Amino acid sequence: MTDKRLEDIEATQIKSNYNEITESFDAMALDSNLLRGVFAYGFENPSTVQRLAIMPMINGYDVIAQAQSGTGKTIAFSIAILQRINPSVRACQALVLTPTRELAQQIHKDIVATGGFMDIQSHTCKGPAREDMKALEDGPQVVIGTPGRIQNMIQGGVLRIDNTKMLVLDEADEVLARGFTEQIHDTISLLPQSAQVILVSATMSQDLLAVSTKFMRDAVHIVVKNDEPPLVGIKQFYIAVDEEDFKLDVLSQMYEAMGIFQTIIFCSTRRKLEWLTDKLTSRDLTISAMHGDMDAVQRCGIMDGFRSGSSRILIATDLLARGIDVQQISLVINFDLPSDPEKYMYRVGRGGKSGRKGATISLVTANDMCTLRKIEQFYSTQFEEMPVNEAVSSEVI
């Protein structure tokens, strides 16, 4: 059996009026090319919110999904969008509203990556207006943007939503907090009566409840609570290095000390990733590298090799941190710290999935210490310093 009743799950963690949970992506009856894209993006098993939310979204229910950041809400509605839309219809079928342009671009990347084997187009309305107008003329099936920009495109007659069957409001509370309530009401009121509305948020305010009451029909309401600290089960270390140029030598020493096992190394840029890949390869290490500019076929091959163990070190950028979910990962190394504390969760959560234990080691210079302290404060956690010359034992990992 792939479906469970909610009574079988920890009651204090989950509340839902939809009474089934689907344990695997295979059990969701996804389009074969979509399933292939999900695995190519690095996912193996759905998170709790994905197991609860994807099927009611696919089945056309209005859905409110409430869970903290980093739990997989974006991938949940991305999969539902890709499953529901018709690739042969060149028109906007799914509209995603976000509080910021940056989040819109990240959602676009997730949809493009997950749908990499499907003939589906996505566009982020981020300006200039002329570029958006030209892109929308091609009829992308998924359109993403802030409420104000989307409203401008609709009012200008550039974006037609006659065929729109889904509207997703991501980080819904944040959207309302930024004063977009009127634009949201206007946009939803223009949708076809049959359109599905999905609200995704970490919190649930009175304003958001008012929106749901006005525009949603018999909504499935899913709340996934997590009373544990977000990084529980993950040991966090940092190694202080005198200069940026010394990080490579420290990394090589670490592998000499602990041997080679399944590891992900995160770099801040594609250029740094390519440089590090060349340097480690020249030191006779078998390396795989994956960045956001690769197509789905390339990513699929790399992830298959990494899962099988033919490559035991994967270097990646933040663009793919959300997708990587390989069950045997024990160690995540931050060659560079992320500038955004929330990205840290996407990175290091790979080493502590599904209650397993893991460790993360960050290589930091004096200039990085401010960023490290911000991450500690953001997650109410603390890093333990690891001396450069200390061997990394299996007990640490």
UniProtKB/TrEMBL annotation:
Entries under InterPro entries matching the protein: DEAD/DEAH_box_helicase_dom, DEAD_box_RNA_helicase, Helicase_ATP-bd, Helicase_C-like, P-loop_NTPase, RNA-helicase_DEAD-box_CS
Keyword Endoplasmic reticulum listed: no
Domain of life: Eukaryota
Helicase ATP-binding domain residues: 54-222
Family: Belongs to the DEAD box helicase family.
Sequence ranges assigned to domain Helicase C-terminal in this UniProt record: 233-394
Any one Gene Ontology molecular-function term assigned to this protein's record: hydrolase activity
Reaction equation(s) it catalyzes: ATP + H2O = ADP + phosphate + H(+)
A GO CC term attached to the entry: cytosol
Keywords assigned: ATP-binding, Helicase, Hydrolase, Nucleotide-binding, RNA-binding
One Pfam family in the UniProt entry: Helicase_C
Protein name per Swiss-Prot or TrEMBL: RNA helicase
Entry's EC annotation: 3.6.4.13
Originating species: Fusarium sporotrichioides
Signal peptide segment: none
Enzyme's top EC category: hydrolase
